[in-house]
Amino acid sequence: MSLRVAVIGLGHFGMNLALRLTEEGCEVIAVDRDPERVEVLQDRVAIAVVLDSTEQRPLRKLGLRDMDIVVVAIGEDFQSSLLTTASLQEIGVKRIINRVISPVHERLLRLMGIHELILPEAEAAEALANRLLLGKVQKAFELSPEYSIVEVGAPQHFVGKSVREIGLRERYGLNLVTIKRVERRAGLLSLGQHERVRVLGVPTPETVIEQDDILVVFGQERELQRLLEAS
What we know:
Layout: E1 4-8, H1 12-23, E2 27-32, H2 35-41, E3 47-50, H3 56-61, E4 69-72, H4 78-91, E5 96-99, H5 103-111, E6 117-118, H6 120-133, E7 137-142, E8 147-153, H7 163-166, H8 168-172, E9 175-186, E10 193-199, E11 214-220, H9 221-230
Parallel strand pairs: 1-2, 1-4, 2-3, 4-5, 5-6
Antiparallel strand pairs: 7-8, 8-11, 9-10, 9-11
C-alpha cells in the first residue's frame, strides 16, 4: 500500500516535494490557495485542490485525518503556517511535518508540540558545505581504532573496470561492501538535473565501476589510506 501524503503550500519547495513523492509512488494531495500553482500539478499528482488551509471546515472535507503524513510547506508567512497546523491538530491528523521559516516560527511550532521540522535552506547549505569540504572521503564510520568503513569516490583509474579487475582485496587488503551509484535525471521544476543515489547491493566480481560511483569499503586504516593516496 502506497504512502498517502498531503502537501499544503505549493511554493517551490512544496511543489517539488509533491512531484518527487508522486514519482516515488506515493498518493499525494496537493493543496494551495493559489489556483495557478494548483493548476501546474492538476494532472501530475493524485489530487490537487484550491483551498485556504487556514480555514478548518474545508480542511476537514479533504479527509486529511486519514493521511499518513501531512506536510505544511507554507513559506510565505508563519501565521498561515501556524493556523493551518492548529487546524490539522484539531482535526486529528496523525503526523504533521512543518517547513520552518524563521527561528521564531520554529519556537512557536515546538511550543505547539510539533517536532518534525524541515529547514530546506539550511539543509541545502549544509549539503553543499559537506560536498565542498569532504574531499575524497564522503563518510567514515570507525568500528575500532584499527578498522573503519568509508565511502570514497571511485578513483578515475577504476572507472570502466570490474570489481575483479580493480582487485581491492588483493592489492589493498580491503573489502568492497557495496556501491552507491549516482543517477542523474531531468529536474522537475528547476532547470538542469537532480541526483539520486541508488545502492547496488552486494557487488559481484563482474560489476563494473562507473563514473561518480561511491565505493563503500571496509578495512584497516592504513590500507584505506593507501587507497586514498592512489585515488
